[in-house]
Design brief:
Keywords: GTP-binding, Hydrolase, Metal-binding, Nickel, Nucleotide-binding, Zinc. This protein has 377 residues and is α/β, with parallel strands linked by helices. The longest helix is centred in the middle third of the chain and has 28 residues, at 158-185. The strands form five sheets. It has an eight-stranded mixed sheet, with helices on both faces. It has a three-stranded antiparallel sheet with strand order 5-6-7, with no helix packed on it. It is built from eight helices and 17 strands. 25% of the residues lie in helices and 23% in strands. Helix 3 (229-235) links the parallel strand 12 (217-224) and strand 13 (241-245).
Amino acid sequence: MCTVCGCGDSHVEGHHHEHDHAHEHSHAHAHEHEHSHDHEHSHQHSHGHHHDEPHHHEHHANDNSSSQPVVIHHHYYHNGDVHHHVHYHVGEQNHGYESSEHGHSHHHVHDHEHSYDEPHHHDHQHSHHHDYEGVVASNGDLHFGQGEAQTHVAGVSQKQLITLEQDILGKNNQVAEHNRAHFIEQHQLVLNLMSSPGSGKTTLLTETIEQIKQKVGCAVIEGDQQTSNDADRIRATQVPAIQVNTGKGCHLDADMIHQAYHQLGQLDQGVLFIENVGNLVCPASFDLGEFCKVVILSVTEGADKPLKYPNMFAASRLMIINKIDLLPYVDFDVEQCIENAKKVNPEIQILKLSARSGEGMEAWTSWLLEQQHQLAH
């Protein structure tokens, strides 16, 4: 999963925050913090400087020593007025986003009323050590998913990655359970639709809505890094939709869904579709409180996708093979794809359809309505 990939800086359409920082002592803090660490770490911020592109850097203090904190910083600049500064502190005794001295984790969002015209200076004095944990196969290929964490981040040990992942997913899962309770109470069948970019999720979604909206209530939460293009397409079907822009983030999380769901207002019982960010990796790891995950694979992608991205297909209850109208024109083995998916997840259900031609759509809409009927009763 993306433990320290910089996911953040998300925006839920119509939602506004008040940014207070809650710490272990249960007070709210202003946006000025003083920290002392075991390593020298100074930032010189000359306000009045401008960044046209996001600025992202990572630095690790004495990465080869588990007694020293690992400090990872992500800086984002948006329209010259938002400074999003995330600190992850990992110490030997604290096992989390905490330094060995402070025992705290925090996210800072600073709003400045000025533009940024001067250079942004960072002075870092660290000793750097690179510990490569990739496994070299007999054919010379490198495998970075063989350690305890089954992932790799340069300069961060496998044990530290496991701790980070447990903390991130633990907090996410708490919100997901809260979401799930809401969905069940309001008889909402919530489906998390996931796929690669270009699989045809939005086209399938608009066609599905047109076919079932007279029979059951529909609403959509749309996830993309930028733009409201897909939400606009959904709203053209006359059903409510909220756009979530994840910025640099590569997936939706439970808190984004919580905010977006409340933005949708009171919904009739029915089906809530969550269209996740196009990505076959990270969305698989994040529970949103949904009824189930649905992975969509188009015939233009390749029959080996379930084997190349097994976590996604293992986490999904249903696989939709989309764009079957293109089968005469592409080299795609449907039966091989199904076999590969069953190797990863023997219980996965399979539907084959084309949102363009309509072939197979009746089986898909019947499945949806049956699931919603069972949930409501």
